[in-house]
Amino acid sequence: MIAIIDYGMGNLHSVKKAIEKVGGRTILSNSMKEITSAEGIVLPGVGAFKSAMHNLKRLKLLDIIYKAIEANKPFFGICLGLQLLFTESEEDGGCKGLNVFKGKVKRFDFASHIRFRTSQPLKVPHMGWNQVQQLPITNYQLPILRGIPDGSYFYFVHSYYVQPKDKSIIATVTDYGIKFVSSISKGNLFACQFHPEKSQKLGLQLLKNFVELVEKC
Hints:
CATH class: Alpha Beta
Structural class: alpha/beta
CATH superfamily: Class I glutamine amidotransferase (GATase) domain
Shape: globular
Number of helices: 6
Helix content: 25-40%
Low-confidence stretches: none
Largest sheet: 9 strands, mixed
Strand order of the largest sheet: 2-1-3-4-13-12-11-8-9
Radius of gyration: 16 Å
Number of strands: 13
CATH topology: Rossmann fold
């Protein structure tokens, strides 16, 4: 069973349907017992960083997340679910995150960055399809990226991006005025800035790879 953490933010039902479409069994939950007993965990998220952290604390879900990651349980973070894993975000004047990984969450600032051959600045939020470039962090393709060609397009909707201090966890980068980190990977943890549940065939392939990882563990 894969527990999709329900803390009141995110495309919960879209994520649930996408995972079930590729053969995964899911449950939407904020129950400590149900999440702890699940074989895999998904932390989705759409919205404000500060509100997300408030909800996770209010529902007493922080320890569950920490223990799952420490135990190397298959874990998938999506969009805000990636950002929350870092030390802090500059959104809304600043807010502390889960601090699973050292680093900051920063807002795109294109006031001085002009799109090539145009006079218009890049728009924020970054919204739509964009390429994801895989990094050679090992001598082989990460299992979670199996069947996904380098340079594939995924769907993004975000105004903030992560800046990890540990560059070894960076799995992919994407170019939007600057090259920003679009996914990270460490052990059985994978988290991405893009939305696999909105990314059609390749998004489903990514979720299928996660389901298979859960089944193996």
